[in-house]
Design goal:
558 residues, Immunoglobulin-like, 15-stranded mixed beta sheet, 2 helices, mainly beta
Length: 558
């Protein structure tokens, strides 16, 4: 007999909640150990049934591996960083509705960029420096070599949140840093949120990442240096207008070959990006001109110091200014076609300095003429509001919808004829999102989180690190994505140990799925719901346990 659910909304039962604790595993040199180096000189597996606290500079040594199961959550202690040494490997195999999460130890409402370090992958692929050190040597281990196919492992369906610990002024690490990472490495479906430095930075290497999200970062979204020559496709950058680099410039793309504007170091930085949707702080027309005073937001794209970095089939919107191609060598690569910008749509609200367009004519008087070259199909040298490119709805930072709306100039205007795009997936649209697919079914569905501040995460007990605090009350979040098809993720928190059920019901109150029906300790959890055999309509999901009974509804649209 099928069980039924009353369709009357069920409120949380009030009352005292026991402050239960949940065992955790501290990995590394120990809590509050700062930059103390820990060497993982054995193969290790992290499992989803344990909560981990990463401490110190956790270094996976050469010839050793770190395997992380889907659904695993790792909290970073202050200054902690995970470093995969050259010759070591990581196998972080998250799943579309069961991602791996690296995040802050702090409770909801108190998390901030720079709460912990970040993740660094070091490989043996070519770079244009000799025995370089990552980020000024604050992190142990060198990188680079001659093996373009070097394999540092797998890193997929992973979120990295509140990273970028500032070790000293102008010396912090990024969300995901890659030094000499080779093409044999698999990196895709990664979200970096609220980094206190770049969201992503490549120092040389040949890896070909795809489906990347940069959200709320402080410095640049995608930074390429030291001879990085890989291809990246389907990338989404989204700025929070309240966060920027306090000591420098906050740009979208930033690319260098080396520290010198006349650098001849080889291999040159020849990275290629395609199908990027980059949304700056002025993400809607209403926000144009409202960015707080003192901000350091500048260009959609900066190419300098002899780089040959190119990008195609993209939309860059919401930054104050457009392109800045800064030095004579880089400008020469642009004129010879070794640096290309093609089929790109830009909106920018201001003209920098004495420029007649939104591009940086102060450093290169010919940049506007170059960008507007007939046949390159670039749009946006004049000042335009974000609405000009027709993204569906960017009004809610925590629930963005950057899918091109009907009539958008992004639809049907891609071009993959450049030899630089060989091997990439050919699509008909500019930007990272298919205009024929709703946001609930895009590649960001289920595994991403654009509201990482609100969901409860256990904070480590400052005493001995063997337990974590319980949430103050039961929580049941709105499923993501919603509407959905065919899968969605449901996140919830349990305040005390006990028998917990999480069940799904149709509009008639008939049970269609039991996602949880078991004894569970206090903690934060996530479950996926696959509705492949169900028809479109409204469904309800109900969380019950000791002292709580919560219900939400969701929409399946096929």
């Amino acid at each position: 007999m099928k069980k039924c659910l009353s369709l009357v909304a069920v409120a949380l039962v009030t009352g005292a909640v026991a402050a239960a604790a949940r065992p955790v595993k501290v990995i590394g040199p120990g809590l509050n150990s700062g930059r103390t180096v820990y060497h993982q000189n054995f193969n290790r597996v992290l499992s989803a049934d344990t909560l981990y606290v990463l401490t110190g500079q956790y270094l996976v040594d050469s010839l050793r591996s770190l395997t992380i199961q889907p659904g695993t959550v790792v909290h970073g202690d202050t200054a902690a960083a995970l470093v995969i040494a050259r010759g070591g490997q990581i196998f972080a195999n998250g799943e579309p509705c069961n991602p791996i999460v690296f995040t802050s130890m702090k409770p909801a409402g108190q998390r901030n960029r720079g709460d912990w370090g970040g993740i660094i992958l070091l490989g043996a692929a070519p770079v244009n420096k000799v025995s370089p050190l990552i980020e000024g040597g604050i992190i142990k281990g060198t990188y680079g070599g001659s093996n373009a196919q070097d394999n540092s492992g797998v890193f997929k369906y992973v979120r990295i949140e509140y990273c970028g610990y500032r070790y000293q002024l102008n010396n912090e690490i990024n969300g995901l840093t890659m030094g000499g990472v080779g093409a044999g490495t698999e990196i895709h479906h990664v979200q970096v949120s609220y980094s206190f430095d770049d969201s992503y930075e490549w120092f040389g290497g040949t890896v070909n990442p795809h489906h990347l999200v940069a959200f709320g970062g402080t410095d640049d979204e995608f930074d390429t240096d030291f001879g990085f020559s890989g291809q990246a496709q389907f990338c989404f950058g989204l700025r929070d207008l309240n966060y920027w680099d306090p000591t420098g410039e906050s740009n979208g793309f930033e690319s260098d070959n080396d520290a010198s504007s006349t650098s001849t170091a080889t291999p040159y930085t020849t990275a290629v990006f395609s199908n990027v949707t980059m949304v700056g702080p002025e993400r809607t027309d209403a926000l144009v001109g409202t960015v707080p005073i003192g901000n350091s937001f500048q260009y959609s794209s900066v190419q300098r110091r002899s780089t040959k970095f190119s990008y195609f089939n993209s939309v860059l919107t919401g930054y104050p200014w457009g392109l800045s191609v800064r030095d004579a060598t880089t400008q020469n690569w642009a004129n010879t076609g070794e640096l290309q910008v093609r089929n790109v749509s830009i909106t920018a609200s201001l003209r920098p300095g004495t420029s007649t367009s939104v591009h940086d004519e102060v450093r290169w008087a010919g940049v506007t003429t170059w960008f507007n070259t007939a046949g390159w199909n670039n749009i946006g040298s004049a000042q335009r509001n974000p609405s000009a490119v027709g993204l569906t709805d960017m009004s809610n930072l925590n629930a963005p919808n950057p899918v091109p709306a009907p009539g958008s100039e992004l639809i049907g205007s891609a071009d993959f004829s450049s030899p630089k795009l060989a091997g990439l997936q050919v699509v008909t649209y500019r930007g990272a999102f298919d205009p024929n697919v709703p946001m609930s079914q895009q590649w960001t569905a289920c595994w991403t989180n654009f509201d990482p501040q609100s969901f409860w995460n256990p904070a480590t007990d400052a005493g001995d690190g063997d337990a974590v605090a319980a949430p103050p009350a039961a929580l049941l979040q709105q499923n993501r994505p919603n509407p959905f098809n065919p899968m969605t993720a449901i996140r919830f928190a349990v305040p005390t140990r006990g028998h917990v059920t999480l069940k799904v019901y149709d509009a008639r109150g008939e049970e269609v799925a039991a996602l949880v029906d078991q004894e569970m300790p206090a903690g934060a959890y996530e479950r996926s719901f696959a509705a492949g055999g169900l028809s479109s309509g409204t469904y309800f999901y109900r969380l019950t346990g000791p002292g709580f009974d919560l219900t939400r509804k969701m929409q399946l649209v096929k």
